[in-house]
Amino acid sequence: MHGCRDRSIEAARVAVLRIDLDADIAAVAQLADEAGAFAAACGLGDEAVSRLLTVLDEVVTNVVAHAGLAAGATIGVELRQRRKGLGVVVEDEGPPFDPLSEARPPVLSGAATDRPIGGLGIFLLQGLASEVAYLRTPQGRNRLSFHVA
Fold first, then answer.
1. Are 62 and 46 in contact (CB under 8 A)?
2. 3-state secondary structure of 56
3. pTM to 2 decimals?
4. In contact, 31 and 77? CB cutoff 8 Å
5. How far is CA 98 from CA 38, 83, 89, 94, 135, in A?
């Protein structure tokens, strides 16, 4: 199990899970298993764990599918226990892309069958998480961070 064993003993320590994923869809399942176990061990309830896994799946899948990463590239994911919930950071080494300002707004009107496929990722992220932010790091990586409680 990942960290968070006994809050009374480890009150001064912060549990952290860091994973470097291969940039392929198969890695998303690995991430879900490890992140779900870590979140539950840190005391997140079932609903919060579900939100976390939904958002992670969406974010990492979008990076794999759209970031144009080179073969052998990795996606870094960090989950950090907070007083309430988890802070999450997802980093990739793709070209600069700020999904909060550059992603097209989703089409929410009309029948679902008539809408274009895609475009709901940031909408979901902002609805299921808080403190959503993007940063291009000095090391040339895209960093998307958010909080799930």
1. no
2. helix
3. 0.83
4. yes
5. 28, 28, 14, 11, 8
